[in-house]
Amino acid sequence: MASTPQRDAHPSTEGPHSGTGDLADAYDVCAFDDLKLNGALSFTFRRQDKSRHGIGVFWDGEEVYAIDNLCPHGDAFLHAGDIIKRRVICPLHRAVFDLRSGECLTRFTNDVETHTAEVRDDRVWVHLPGEIPFVKDAPR
Ligand code: FES
User: By the number of CB atoms within 10 A of the CB, which of 26, 27, 59, 134 ranks highest?
Assistant: First the structure.
């Protein structure tokens, strides 16, 4: 299992970027090297209704992915699961999720939402239209 600390969104000292063009509603969440080192990281955003939205960001050795971080089956954080090429395995009951589609491949719980993630200039960006980073004291 990868070492996977939970992080506040926008750990960059520059704060969140909500740019224009194709980076509108995209946030610079971490250094790509940090994600590669950890395999997965978690970030908390806030929806327009003010509810918290946990996002897991994953690196499987080939691509970067972002999905909702809470397993729909229970109270497990998917970023703490095992990552195997384009898939993450829930650490609690081993449901397998496709990181590209969010589909639960083992079919015993619901699918999870996926979000666009990309690497630009050695930083990882996640697109979350209408959401803002939520700063909190997170366990490390
Ligand atoms: S909590 Fe994820 S499979 Fe049960």
Answer: 27
